[in-house]
């Protein structure tokens, strides 16, 4: 499976222009699976509920339709983050749109910093779906800080964790090594680049999107400041062997009964 990590710098609030440019970048780099950042086309640093509401899209909106059309045109699966308007509620969501018309929605479980002011905590749990022989799991940014997130996806059978991100802390790209090795999965952390100055606060995003193998090899690592579409061929089957030696099959030897607080 050819996997593309689309590291991008959206211009805050310029959704249509960002989508056009983002999809053009994807079309220049053929792949089976494209992973895009969290809140891929709106920007990140909202300053009011009204602003989030104005920029949020329902899954039925024409903007989301543009991604569906791109999945068909590219004959691929696209996973991208967006602010999801769902009735009166707004989630920080990621949607996977597949060339065969299927789609899978994930709503961010662990909200970071001021996201807690503007978004509702996700209610979907962590989805895993199959595409072209690969089992793909979905997570968003700060979810990584909670080891249960990637563990749950791995226990549900994910070979690849599509981790749409807007990282501002310096840890995740390094921590992915441990998460990939412990869970014996591929992790694709796809980050954005650039900085946003809104009102009196600036947030700088750390770039450096990474693809890590189940053995902890960094197969891809993006630049810190520039946009880039990084492509690698992976064999998803490499994530299915959970043995680290003939005596230790790390998923079978888990002991949940010993992990209680009593
Ligand atoms: C984050 O969850 N965007 C850090």
UniProtKB/TrEMBL annotation:
PANTHER family: BETA-UREIDOPROPIONASE, NITRILASE C965.09-RELATED. It comes from uncultured spirochete. Residues 1-236 form the CN hydrolase domain. InterPro entries: Aliph_Amidase/BUP (IPR050345), C-N_Hydrolase (IPR003010), C-N_Hydrolase_sf (IPR036526). Keywords: Hydrolase. The keyword ATP-binding does not apply. This is Putative amidohydrolase. It comes from the Bacteria. Pfam families: CN_hydrolase (PF00795). The keyword Repeat does not apply. One of its GO terms (molecular function) is hydrolase activity, acting on carbon-nitrogen (but not peptide) bonds, in linear amides. Gene3D superfamilies: Carbon-nitrogen hydrolase.
């Amino acid at each position: 499976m050819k996997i593309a990590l689309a590291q991008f710098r959206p211009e805050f609030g310029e959704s249509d222009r960002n989508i056009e440019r983002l999809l053009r970048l994807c079309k220049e780099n053929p792949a089976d699976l494209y992973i895009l950042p969290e809140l891929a086309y709106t920007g990140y640093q909202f300053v009011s509920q009204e602003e989030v509401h104005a920029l949020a899209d329902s899954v039925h909106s024409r903007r989301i339709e543009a991604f569906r059309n791109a999945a068909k045109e590219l004959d691929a699966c696209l996973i991208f983050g967006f602010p999801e308007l769902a009735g009166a509620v707004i989630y920080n969501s990621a949607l996977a749109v597949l060339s065969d018309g299927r789609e899978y929605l994930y709503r961010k479980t662990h909200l970071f910093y001021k996201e807690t002011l503007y978004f509702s905590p996700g209610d979907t749990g962590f989805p895993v779906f199959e595409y072209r022989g690969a089992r793909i799991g979905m997570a968003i940014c700060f979810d990584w800080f909670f080891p249960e997130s990637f563990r749950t996806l791995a226990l549900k059978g994910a070979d690849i964790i599509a981790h749409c991100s807007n990282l501002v802390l310096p840890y995740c790209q390094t921590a992915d090594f441990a998460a990939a090795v412990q869970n014996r999965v591929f992790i694709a952390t796809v980050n954005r680049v650039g900085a946003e100055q809104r009102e009196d606060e600036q947030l700088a995003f750390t770039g450096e999107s990474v693809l890590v193998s189940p053995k902890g090899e960094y197969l891809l690592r993006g630049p810190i400041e520039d946009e880039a579409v990084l492509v690698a061929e992976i064999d998803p089957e490499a994530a299915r062997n959970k043995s680290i030696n003939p005596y230790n099959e790390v998923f079978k030897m888990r002991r949940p009964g010993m992990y209680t607080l009593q």
